[in-house]
Structure formats: structure tokens, C-alpha cells
Amino acid sequence: MTKTFDCDVIVLGGGLSGQTLALALDQAGLSVTLVDAAPLDDMLAPEFDGRASALAYTSFRMLEAIGAADQLREHVQRIEHILVCDGRPYGGARPGGPGAHTLHFDRREIHPEEDGEPLGYMAENRHTRHALTQCLKASKWLDLRAPAKASNWERIPGGIRLDLEDGSAVTGRLLCASDGKFSRARQQAGTRTAGWTYNQAGLVMTVEHEQPHDGAAYEYFMPAGPFAILPLPGNRSSLVWTEKTDIAAAILGLDEAGLQAELEKRFGDFLGAVKPVGPKFSYPLSVRFAENFYEDRIAYVGDAARGIHPLAGQGFNLGIRDAAALAEVLVEAKSLGLELGSPVTLQRYANWRKLDSMGLVAATDLFNRLFSNDIGPLRWARGLGLSMVDRIAPARRFFMREAGGETGDLPKLLRGESLAA
């Protein structure tokens, strides 16, 4: 007797990566159940939470292909330029501000059309969640279980059963764990992880400034770590401000005047007067990656597969690339009558994604260690390196395409193509 399952795929975790995967699978004709501990309605709340993510242009293609970009487009800011340089805070013993060596990326080098794709897009997470959730709720077939907290899972013949704390359960042929860097599903599976922590914390906040940013993003490598200024719609920018852990805690504890003074030391006045708006967040920086990207009947997606340093702003983009590759693998497997959760099927997904992931883990770690210091010879060498790349057009174009997710074997969704039959 053939076992009947509630769905083809259970997606555990309704964050941005999980929602993207669920929507892609649903639109490609697979039956999906999405389980998340938080009510999805809360993600639609209008309150400003201050967090934003950079979307590579290939990631935005996928959002277009699955229909989420239509509702998101009016809330995104195109990134037309990226400037990278060494820097120091103003007011110290040494001259502050950007260093003499700058690397400039201009989207027109790779997308010369007047209305061509930008280097990326900035979007507040609340708007991205809103767009994805609205699409998910509009689906006639997708089963949303939220709020519903998972307790554990168990393999059953031909599939997997996910038990929920309310006493119910859902069965599927495959469990896709997108439940974060400290994934409980991955821990229960016994998948080993490796990683390390940095003595750094990331301060995240939104600021308003007098002058327009013109779609330019800035990455200053300060002695304590990267200081990223990422453009948002209007005269606003999202900051990802890296400091040593104890310094970050002290900055968050400052009063309004003290925080303003520390911000101005790093931001400068090139966009006129600047001030923080909305909440401020701090989180410890670390790297954690799974030894395997799957186990029998389980696939890891997003931070459950690997969590990286935010230096290059690639965390969410890696999750979208996971979703694009896994969705394509599963759609093809189902069309061929293969088992969705078998190691044979999932090994293709792992082969597709692991090299890209490990490459970014290594690259972000190397750049963070190389640039997060004030050692004279290293500052000279990295400044020289930035200037050299800035003078070599093929090198600039390579790095822009790499950051945009366009190198390697691209899944169809990242090319803007639909998986639907």
C-alpha cells in the first residue's frame, strides 16, 4: 500500500529564505507545508524595526520569477555604485575619514543600459517579508502552519513526520530546515558543524542624512571592522557598524548625544548632518557551517546550512541561492519519479551549493581578518591591492558579477526563469 503524505515538502522556518523556498516550490507544482513558530501576520505589522538586507541582482530576479517583486519594487533602493576603502574614525590621534586608496564599482560596467540591472537592491526586511507573505497567503494550495512550534521530527517509511507542540503532526517526503544558524532540526539529526566566533559585534541601525546618497553604498574598513553605509529609499541609509564586542555594548549604552558623537566620528559629513532613526540592534559575529548540507529526508537551507560574517552582505543571498538550487533539483526529481528526500537527490543540491558557500565563508573570513586592524604594513598592502583592482577593469567586473551571484552554474530562478511546467 502506498503511503499517503500531507505534502511533498515541509519547510521548517518562515524567515526570508524559508518563505522564498516555499513560494518557489508551490509555484512549481509541489505541495508544501510551511511551519513557523511566529504568526505570519506579525511579520506584516507596520512598525518600523530598522533591519534591512542587501539583495543581489540575481536574487531580485528570483523574487520577480516567483511574483514577490511586484509588491516589493516600490520599497527597494537600487545600488548603482559601491565604494570600498580603508578608513579611521575622525577625532583620533591619526587623520580620520576614508583612506587614499579606493575601489569603485559602477553598475554600468556590467549593465550598461540606461535602465539596466543595478549592482543590487536594498530593502527593509519588513517589506520583503510583507511581499513574500502576501504571495504565500494568496496561494490556493500551500499549507501555512503559523504560529506552530515544532517539537521534533521522525523518519517514517518514504518520508518524515514533524511533530508540533500542540499535539498535531505533518508528514512529507522531505523536510527542508531553514530554522537558522542554531537549527534545532540539524541538531536533532546529529549533523556536525564547525565554526568560530569573532571578538566583534554588529551594530545595525537606520540613519537619516541631509544629502541624497544617489544609490551609492560605502564599505569602510575601520580598525575595529567594517562600517557599511547602505542606501535606502529617500535620504536614509542602513548601517552595519562592526566594533569589538565590549565597545559595541558600550556604544549601545550611550545616551542620545553620546551615540550621535560616535556615529559622526565614523560617518563624517559627506551626506550632511546625520542622525539615527528607529531601533538599534547588536548581535555577536560568528561563522557556523554544517559538515553536510543534507541528511536522509532532510535538507538544510540558509543559515541552517551556513552562517557567515556580514562583511559582504551575502547572508540572505546565500539563502536565496540555496532555495533556487534546491527548488530546481526537487522539481526535476519529481518529474523523473525520483524520491525527493533520498541522498541521491539531495547530493545534487549539496554539490551545487557547497563550493559557493565554502568559498564565501573563506573569503569573508580572510577579508575581515586582513582589514580589521590598524597595522601599518597591512594597511599599505591592502590599500595597494584596492588600487590595483580599481585599475583593472576585468577584475572589477569579475567582483561585481561574483557579488551579484552571477558566476558559476546558475539555477533557472536566478536567471529569472520560472520552474512552473
Write the SSE topology:
Blueprint: E1 7-12, H1 16-27, E2 32-35, E3 52-56, H2 57-65, H3 69-72, E4 76-79, E5 81-88, E6 97-106, E7 120-124, H4 125-138, E8 143-145, E9 150-156, E10 159-164, E11 169-177, H5 184-189, E12 193-209, E13 216-222, E14 225-232, E15 236-244, H6 245-252, H7 256-267, E16 274-290, E17 294-295, E18 298-300, E19 306-307, H8 315-335, H9 343-371, H10 376-391, H11 393-403
Helix pairs in contact: 1-4, 1-8, 8-9
Descriptive overview:
The chain has 421 residues and is an alpha+beta fold. The protein has one domain: FAD/NAD(P)-binding domain. The protein is built from eleven helices and 19 strands. Strands 1, 2, 8, 9, 10, 11, 17 and 18 form an eight-stranded mixed beta sheet that branches. It has an eight-stranded mixed beta sheet with strand order 6-5-13-14-15-12-16-19. It has a three-stranded antiparallel beta sheet with strand order 3-7-4. β9 and β10 form a beta hairpin. α1 packs parallel to α8 and α8 runs antiparallel to α9.
Features:
globular, 421 residues, eight-stranded mixed β-sheet, alpha+beta
